[in-house]
Amino acid sequence: MSQIHLLSPRLANQIAAGEVVERPASVVKELLENSLDAGATRLEVDIEQAGIKLIRIRDDGDGIEKDDLPLALSRHATSKIYALEDLEAVASLGFRGEALASISSVSRLTLTSRRIASEHAWQVQTEGRDMEAALSPAAHPQGTTVEMRDLFFNTPARRKFLKTENTEFKHLDEVVKRLALSRFDVAFQLKHNSRIIHQLKPAMLQADQERRVAAVCGPAFVEQSLRVDMNAEASGLTLKGWIGLPTFSRSQADLQYFFVNGRMIRDKLVTHAVRQAYADVLFHGRHPAYVLYLELDPALVDVNVHPTKHEVRFREGRLVHDFIFRSIHRVIGDVRPDASSVPAL
Ligand code: ADP
Ligand code: MG
């Protein structure tokens, strides 16, 4: 008797969801990235019970065509790439076409959207998802609202792995903070159990940006930090942002944000370069605080290593490492007691 059979699409999606949807924070990350990819300028995030009960994200982006709504929920369905070559230059945050399919397979999902040219909005609703998502007309301004309820309601084993509401909310808040630091031009609002946690206006002027960094990282960080604004003309690398004074060091590496061409990353090479620059001014076991933005030719960095991990691959690792090290070392040099040891940039 034959023993091999194809998994049902629903089960296949639920298994795949394990990769993308680990916890409420991962849902928020995927949904906010979709909104940003759609050109949103205003993002509203409503959360109940740390996102386990409800995650509602409303944007003012381009919206989704009526006929595309059910497709948006299908696996491997995306509007962002067409061919393998597109991956070389992918500018969007997503492109795998897996997030909505995964999320909808482990929650109750309502997707409401309106394109600017449409007379009204359309809505699809799914519950743990089987493909017959029903379309109905709806009222909604231009943009998209995704409402996710009851995460993991149909996968109790996974639900058991969720931590306390407090912990889950911290992860979720961290996702919002990272994105808020990566897009000063976008307004963010985060509400948890009807309480406003973040209310961030677009911040294009430097003073406004500093205010946003203070709102996200705490005013003490901005007050006790140095501005970085460096560029290496030969290689076209630039590094901007804020680095904490040595006296503002932390017992944990919990205030470290590093963006490469606008994307938050975590990378050994970067961490090492920053550490080294601080080596002679920080006590053992202390960690520097920083919010830094590295810009470089996109051809010199591969950001598509893994969808959920924040890894990148630099083509010229040594060059990037040295640039980061020297830039920070020099800025710290201005306050270092023995300034004569600063290497030339
Ligand atoms: P990906 O982002 O990798 O394309 P997703 O499953 O996250 O895959 O989304 C599928 C598709 O649904 C996207 O390619 C996009 O066309 C559409 N979409 C999802 N969210 C939004 C949104 N907030 N606004 C406009 N379109 C969206
Ligand atoms: Mg996506």
Automatic annotation (TrEMBL):
Residue intervals of the DNA mismatch repair protein S5 domain: 213-333
Gene Ontology CC terms, in alphabetical order: mismatch repair complex
GO terms of molecular function: ATP binding; ATP hydrolysis activity; ATP-dependent DNA damage sensor activity; mismatched DNA binding
GO annotation (BP), single: mismatch repair
Keywords: DNA damage, DNA repair
Family: Belongs to the DNA mismatch repair MutL/HexB family.
Protein role: This protein is involved in the repair of mismatches in DNA. It is required for dam-dependent methyl-directed DNA mismatch repair. May act as a 'molecular matchmaker', a protein that promotes the formation of a stable complex between two or more DNA-binding proteins in an ATP-dependent manner without itself being part of a final effector complex.
Stated name of the protein: DNA mismatch repair protein MutL
Organism: Neptunomonas antarctica
Gene name linked to the record: mutL
